[in-house]
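Translate sequence into structure tokens.
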Amino acid sequence: MNSLIFLLLAIFSIVTLFPIIWTAITSLKTDVQMFAIPPDLLPHPATLSHYKEVLMGNFPAYIRNSMLVTFFSCAISLALGIPAAYGFAKYATEKTKPVFAAVTAVRMVPPVAMVIPFFLIIRNIHLSDTLLGLIITYIPFELTLIIWMLKNFFGQIPREVEEAAELDGLSAWGILLKVVLPMSKSSVGVAGLMAFLFSWNEFMFALSLTSTKSAQTLTVGIAGYVTSFQTFWGSMSATGILFMIPAFILTFFFQKDLVKGLTAGAVKG
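Result follows.
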């Protein structure tokens, strides 16, 4: 049985990693090697010319925009989402249930269905083609995700712990900051990581709300290598690998917290 599970996991890992490995190999090939028949499985010799071309082009502007939009949208969403999730978990009433239902309903709507409404809103407030416009657009989606993920975890914190903190003279904000958050670092980290991935990988809003490299993010920059006349596979592959690195780094360093956070609500028995 264990051998079968190991085999299935190995197959799943190969299928999952193959596109990433192939993208990395393609980024190291010359243009001639990419279209060789039969295909060359490995680059010989490997070249870094595509990476040099990318780094000398618009990549620095794109990565700066992506980092700024992701950082500020995630920071604002966490600052608003953590107390909101705690409020829904600990101070829920019949009047707050429809509000939480509306929050979770937003998660059911595909983001692509919201592109046109947000485009009209951002255009009317004159924030088209700006980083601030993207930040404002991303926050509602990240905020609802954070509230949805953290509410159940905050609800599982023993009431006795909070009552003891109240006896020590802590206010509701004091309990949240000094008791609840230290106990839920893993879950908050997971919620923040999920919000980061949403913002980092978002494409449709970035494409529809920006038109110049002054505000375009890296996802739009990658799509720009596909033109009506040619697809620049080498540069696109190199940019894709560079694009994945921040997500890989964060996941690697927070993998233990990720596992703890994702299993925090599991039923033991």
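Note: Residues 74 and 192 are 7 Å apart (CA to CA).
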